[in-house]
Amino acid sequence: MGTGRTLLSLVKERRLKYIGHAERNTKTDLMKTIFEGKTEAKRGRGRPSLSYVDQVSKATGLKLQSISQKSQDRVIWREIAKSSCAAANINPDDAAR
Q1: Tell me: the pLDDT tens digits for 30-39?
Q2: I want to staple 95 with a disulfide (CB 3.0 to 4.6 A). Which of 10, 67, 82, 86 is the partner?
Q3: Torsion angle of C-alpha atoms 5, 8, 10, 12, degrees rounded to 10
Q4: Spatial distance between the Cα atoms of 39 and 43, rounded to a whole number of angstroms
């Protein structure tokens, strides 16, 4: 039906935009915590879930160091977020409606 692709594309775009926002924020070490993926919880049964960094790397095709560098420039990072959305053949403006 296309609804699932639209929703997934919207989630992907928002995840990428948030990474850029949090990476540029110098007041907290939030990105360090997210990139390291350290939480104080027991590991559940079954297959381990993908880390946040793995999801962003898969969506953009970039490595961690490149993600950190490119997300510092807001214009470039927004283009990366939109292009990954375009790769799924979804217009992010239509997905938001």
Answers
A1: 776 766 666 6
A2: 10
A3: -130
A4: 10
